[in-house]
Design goal:
The chain has 11 helices and no strands. By secondary structure, the protein is an all-alpha fold. The protein has a domain of 134 residues: Tetracycline Repressor, domain 2, CATH 1.10.357. Helix 2 crosses helix 5, helix 2 runs parallel beside helix 7 and helix 5 packs parallel to helix 8. The relative contact order is 0.11. The N terminus and C terminus are likely disordered.
């Protein structure tokens, strides 16, 4: 969709586009899973070839380097996540209904494809600074601009109070979103959310969805001119 494509850097070699779509998909998915499990430095290309059921030398027939493969897999995952999260949004929905959709679809994507969320979390790790310089802006700019635009529209429509700090509000909303998704793929963040929310069982998609709804109500309470009273909220599913 227009505006969603990321910059096409570190392209695969022409040979990668010549293999069957099924083989190409299997290779990219297995690469994402392996990078998520082992991290960049510990990922072995021979193991990837075995898991993807391709010849050992094929990885470098498809990409010039492991770095190029990693960047391509990250960008591929970014495109997948944006399609999954934003494709069903009706532009006529207000800020709060769109946030419910974004959070809900994000959780579903993380539950179905945890490897891509794990790779996002891993980019903040020590030793990944070069990749952060390459990827972080293109990962974050779309969402930052989208959320700030939603909040500005909400101010004009009367759904958001006029004195709100738009930039800080967008940052806080996205930070909450990242924490919920991370809790589904990271042991550290899973322990963290269990402690803060006093969960007796492991968080799953259903329990996270319940707490997301409470989070959206808190966001409404902060942003709405009327204080986000549940009986005054509009367009709630």
């Amino acid at each position: 969709m227009t505006g969603w494509s990321v910059t096409r850097k570190h392209m695969p070699k022409p040979t990668f586009d010549k293999i069957s779509p099924e083989k190409r998909e299997r290779f990219l998915v297995e690469a994402a899973r392996l990078f998520a499990e082992r991290g960049f430095s510990q990922t072995d290309m021979a193991e990837l070839a075995s898991r993807a059921n391709v010849a050992k030398g094929s990885v470098y027939d498809y990409f010039d380097s492991k770095e190029d493969l990693y960047l391509h897999v990250c960008r591929d995952g970014l495109e997948r996540s944006r399609r999954a999260v934003y494709s069903g949004i009706d532009p006529s929905w207000d800020l709060y209904r769109q946030l419910r959709h974004i959070f809900g679809q994000g959780v579903k994507f993380a539950d179905s494809h945890p490897e891509y969320v794990a790779m996002y979390v891993n980019i903040s790790s020590a030793g990944m600074e070069t990749f952060a310089e390459e990827l972080s802006l293109e990962v974050e700019k779309f969402t930052a601009d989208y959320l700030k635009g939603l909040i500005r529209a909400g101010v004009k429509q009367g759904f958001v109070r006029k004195d709100v700090d738009i930039k800080l509000s967008a940052f806080i909303i996205n930070s909450l979103y990242i924490m919920f998704l991370s809790s589904l793929v990271s042991r550290h963040y899973r322990i963290r959310i269990k402690e803060y929310l006093e969960m007796k069982r492991e968080p799953n998609e259903r329990t996270i969805a319940k707490h997301i709804e409470k989070t959206i109500l808190l966001i409404e309470g902060f942003l709405r001119p009327d204080g986000g009273s549940p009986d005054k909220s509009e367009n709630r599913r």
